[in-house]
Amino acid sequence: MAVQVSVIGSGVEHEPAAEEVGRLLAERGCVVLTGGTDEVMAAAHRGAKAAGGTTIAVLPGERRADANPWADHVVATGVGHARNLAVAASADAVIAVGGSWGTLTEIGFAMRLGRPVVILAGGPSVDGVPRAATPAEAVEVALAGLAPTR
Length: 150
Prior knowledge:
- The chain has helices spanning 15-27, 40-50, 83-89, 101-112, 135-143; strands at residues 4-10, 31-34, 55-59, 73-76, 93-98, 117-120, 131-132.
- It is α/β, with parallel strands linked by helices and 150 residues long.
- The protein has a domain at 11-94: Rossmann fold (3-Layer(aba) Sandwich).
- The chain has a 7-stranded parallel beta sheet, sandwiched between helices.
- Helix 1 runs parallel beside helix 2, helix 1 crosses helix 5 (135-143) and helix 3 packs across helix 4.
- The longest helix has 13 residues, at 15-27.
């Protein structure tokens, strides 16, 4: 089974970093999972697809058509923000790029579930969660200790 990494966050200013994270994860054979909509989520999927990777969108609403165009597989939850638990629980590791309140909930869920979490510079500061200065460092920290994907 392929390693699934959730890329969480928001903010158009963080899109270039999220796209690089998605590309690096795909190059390592990881499936890139996000909340499936815009900004950081779309950028991570775009980067993964550019590297030939596979993407999963876990949407808050009921319409699969609301997913970003780089989503290969779409889960329409219909549960609103509660979908953040599915984004965290479905991941083997989590990388936060930018973000706000929703990102904090996903970090909290991931930590509670024992998933490795790393926050890329520019993201929220959370005690006990490692930070990374670059997308490459974030990917390395997130995947450290997980089974190899390729």
